[in-house]
Amino acid sequence: MSVVALIPAAGCGARFGSGVKKQYLHLSGRPVVARTLEIFQQHPLIEKIFLVVPPEETDYCREGIVARYALTKVADIVAGGAERQDSVANGLIACGGAPGDILVIHDGVRPLFPAERLDEVIRVARECGACVAGMPVKDTVKEVVDGVIVGTPDRGRLWQAQTPQAFRFELIRQAHETAARQGLRATDDAALVERLGAEVRMVAGSYRNLKITTPEDLLLAEAFLAAAREER
What we know:
It is a single chain. The protein is 34% helix and 23% strand. It is α/β, with parallel strands linked by helices. The chain has one domain (3-231): Spore Coat Polysaccharide Biosynthesis Protein SpsA, Chain A, CATH 3.90.550. The radius of gyration is 17 Å and the shape is globular.
């Protein structure tokens, strides 16, 4: 049973407001996506990595990211699609996993996931077929329509979904194929699996597992890395 990582990093970074896409911005001297890939490069359970990037950036990533940082587990660099869901679907085709394999999907702009927690994500996916890393929400959440609060969900039942998200290969492939046939869209892969009626379990990720989306996120990530260096 192989464990393969799929890293979508084909976003345009519109919310970041920088001339450089967020996945290529430097975080403590290395591009964000390189730091993300290193999590999986160094993890003993990961056999192969597939990186998904914009079609026009494959050559740059091959030389400027994969070769430069000796990311030897990267088996292929895949051309992404119009949206994240399309990019993951392209990556699924490229992976060509066997039914019993585990596919770990992780955002290319989440460079701070604690590697030691990946073991549990994979273990739970092997047991039940689907697992998501996440954390309980810390703030009260309001449901708002046209600027008016229409509900306050019970915070005790709410978790913030993160990546990595791990799945048995045949399950995530079926989820994406069904979504494509039915024209369904979702903001994460777990939602597509949920629509099949399959069980998806949640395990603890980390509050430091930031998705680099805004300049403030990059500043926080730098602070977390600095704190980690001091702790060592």
